[in-house]
Amino acid sequence: GNSVTQMEGPVTLSEEAFLTINCTYTATGYPSLFWYVQYPGEGLQLLLKATKADDKGSNKGFEATYRKETTSFHLEKGSVQVSDSAVYFCALINLTGGGNKLTFGTGTQLKVEL
Amino acid sequence: NAGVTQTPKFRILKIGQSMTLQCTQDMNHNYMYWYRQDPGMGLKLIYYSVGAGITDKGEVPNGYNVSRSTTEDFPLRLELAAPSQTSVYFCASSWEAGGPYEQYFGPGTRLTVT
Q1: How does pLDDT run along chain B (114 residues), one tens digit per residue?
Q2: Residue A99: left (phi > 0), alpha (psi -120 to 50), or beta?
Q3: Which chain A residues in 16-55 lie under 8 Å from chain B, judged by CB atoms?
Q4: Which of residues 49-108 of A touch B (CB under 8 A)?
Q5: What residues have CB less than 8 Å from A56, skipping those under 6 apart?
Q6: Which of A15, A67, A98, B39 has CB atoms 3.0–4.6 Å from A94's, for a disulfide?
C-alpha cells in the first residue's frame, strides 16, 4: 500500500536558519506529492505540490523536489521566520487505484525562535 | 466565498452519547472527506464521498456514519461515543479525481469523549 514517512519533531531553529524536513514515500506507480502546513488552531493548507519526477514545487520561499530514484520529497527553506512555526505534513495521492485520497505522514512540528 | 466550514468548533460528549459534526462547502466540489487527527499520528481518512448520494469507507470508519444528500453538505454522525473517538476532526473537499487536485480543509472540530 501507500505510505509516507517524515522526520519526527519538534524541529527548533533560530530565525534565518536553513530548514530541511525529510519525507520519503512508498507507492506503486507515479504518485503526486504534497506538503501541507497547519498553523496553530487552524486546518491544513496546501503549501506546495509536485506531480511528476524531477518536478520542483515552491511557495512562500519553501521548495521540494520530487526524487523518484530516492522516493523522497524533502521540504527546504533557506531562511525561516518565526511566522513559519507550524506543523508540516507530507502527503501523496496515488491515482493508481487510490482515487483522490491523500495518504499523510505523521507531521513535523517546526518551532522558530528569535 | 467561505470555503469549508465546520460546526461546532469544540464539543465534550459523555460516553454513549451521539452527535453530528456538520460540514459545508461552497466551492461546488464533488469530493468531500472526513479525517481524524490524533497526536503524533497524522490524519486518517474516516469516510469520503464522490458526489451527492455516494459515500464510501476510508481507513477508520468504525463508530461513524455519513450521508451526502446535497453537494454542499457532508455530516459525520457519531453513535455511542467512546473515549477512543476523542480527536480533532477535519472535513475537506476537492474537485473530481483524474488529477492531483488540492484538498481544501475546514478549521476542525475538537471532540472530547469522557
Answers
A1: 679 999 999 999 999 999 999 999 999 999 999 999 998 778 999 999 989 999 999 989 999 999 999 999 999 999 899 999 999 999 999 886 555 678 899 999 999 999
A2: left
A3: 32, 34, 41-46, 49, 51
A4: 49, 51, 89, 93, 95, 99-102, 104-107
A5: A50, A63, A64, A65, A66
A6: A98
